[in-house]
Give the backbone structure.
Amino acid sequence: MIKVRYNLDLKTLRANYLKIFDLTAMTAVWKPYESVFGMKIEELLTAEFDRLVEVYLQYKVTKLSQGQINTLNGLFKYESYQPKLAWFFMNLENKFDFKTCHYCNMAYVNAYGKGDSYRMILDFIKGATASEWRYWFTKDELSDVSIKKILQEQPSYTTLEDFNKKKYLWKRIELYKRMTLATDANHFDLDHVLPKAICPLTRLSLFNFVPSCQVCNEKLKKDVELATTKEDWLKISPTYSGSNFDDAVTFKLIPEVSCSTFFELMKNRENYRLDFDMSDGVYDNYITVFRLHDRYNYHKQRALHILSLKERYSEEKREEISRMMSNRYDGNGESIYSEAQVKEDIFHLDLEKDECFSKLRKDMMERN
């Protein structure tokens, strides 16, 4: 499990998130339930995961009529907001930087979409081609003549206000809103840690969303509950700052034959298997749900490769290489082949720290 990193300060992130919703309309529907669950709608949408678990568990034991359940299902209808929610995680302004599935760390997930090559709306206005304008707007909305005029005047647009002053009616065509719905090219799923089929209240909650691969989300987890108690939920959620999967679960390599070196083991993948050391049964359930035993053993050669490199390039060997190459210096007069740099060149620790299999690599590097 890889924790979701929230690089934007949480106050700003929450404010940006709430812009997705019509809070006035939602509050009117939610008002009768506010006292039951002890949260205003804004709080429910942006509460941290530990509070969400409490609401989730409370909902499961609260007796509601079918009419009330239908009302809540309608209020928190995920499908109605899915495009905007996906864009929220894709929007560079919110500073998400996820690269791999936060459940398995085996598959890449990418946040990109139509127009994502433009970092801001002004960049689009100043640089979009005729075909890109036409992608966003029909001829009834923006004529060919208007597009030609925009292209001719592109060099003069230095601010959005410059564009707004023109006769192309920025507010009418609502370019920003149109672009925020462009999620057809994104390559990730938004999974609900707390299953949306079991509790509607947390379906739209920011800290219940985990960027994940389709295998983990659609084929394996689905609506499975990964835990039952609050204590256990907090241990396994990638969105909770206090979760400790990385410390509590460690990859271990088990040789099935007697071999003198890891390099020798690499010759036959059947000579070893990957397993897990763990401190709590809740992690065993997590590993079972996501089938991490089977999936990682398919790639177990990666573990042997790291151990083989460690065996062949010990610290003493790296220092020897550094001494041999010490006549090369950077602009500051420092050797470009320091022992630390040689280590990075061999193991790519910094380069691949956020890449697939980073947990496996880290555990093998720390293995005695």
